[in-house]
Amino acid sequence: MTYKPFVLSDKTVLVTGANACIGYGMAEALAQAGARLVIGGRRADRNDAAAEEFRRHGVEVFPQQVDISREEQVDAAFAEAVARYGAIGAVFANAGRSGERGPFEQTTTAGYREIVEANPFGAMFTARSSSPHGRGLQGRGPARRDRRHRQFEHALGHAGQRELRHDQGRD
After folding, report:
1. Residue 95: pLDDT band by 50, 70, 90 thresholds?
2. Residues 90-97: what's their mean pLDDT?
3. Structure pTM?
4. Are the C-beta atoms of 61 and 51 separated by less than 8 Å?
5. How confident is the model at residue 114 (pLDDT cuts 50, 70, 90)?
6. Where are the chain's structural domains?
7. Sign of CA pseudo-dihedral 27, 31, 37, 39
8. What is the pLDDT of residue 47?
9. How much is the mean pLDDT over the chain?
10. Architecture per CATH, 12-138
11. Which one of 26, 55, 136, 158 is most buried, by most CB atoms within 10 A?
């Protein structure tokens, strides 16, 4: 039985990490609600397979190969989606790295650094790329933008805050 708590037939939704796990479940629920999907992930074959599954719900799906840890790829993918569909109604920044397989005590420093750098920055790159394009995502007035910026800093943690301030010349 299909659960349809709301109808999204006139909305375009971008979901990163939609080819597996939680992202897949979110994208499938959005497809069941009728949303047009833009799905992104590093593995083109898995993106295409997921897109075929989502199309079973009668929706249009645009799969994109994108590595969320690469800022330029995120920006280019979002620009391509906006050029194709216009406004993006919602963004789910779900993609991330889970690290090396095996016991934690065998985790390498390089492997852990990949997770620590990719996950918060990937979410930030996705959210930042979406900000000027989404309907209702931009907020109104400086107070709302300030509050949203503080929420990003909170989500990034202390290391991410320092990097974000440095990039903006506020350190």
Report:
1. confident
2. 88
3. 0.73
4. yes
5. confident
6. 12-138
7. positive
8. 96
9. 80
10. 3-Layer(aba) Sandwich (3.40)
11. 26
Q: Which two tokens stand for residue 141?
A: 């007035």
Strand partners, 38: 14, 62
Question: What is the rounded distance in angstroms from the CA atom of residue 109 to the CA atom of residue 143?
Answer: 40
Q: Which two tokens stand for residue 56?
A: 């079973």
CB crowding 35-45: b at 16 or more within 10 Å, else e: bbbbbbbbeee
What count of Cα atoms within 13 Å lies in the side-chain half-sphere of residue 39?
34
Question: How confident is the model at residue 4, as a pLDDT?
Answer: 54
Cα separation, 131 vs 61, in Å, equals 22
Residue with tokens 């789910």: 92
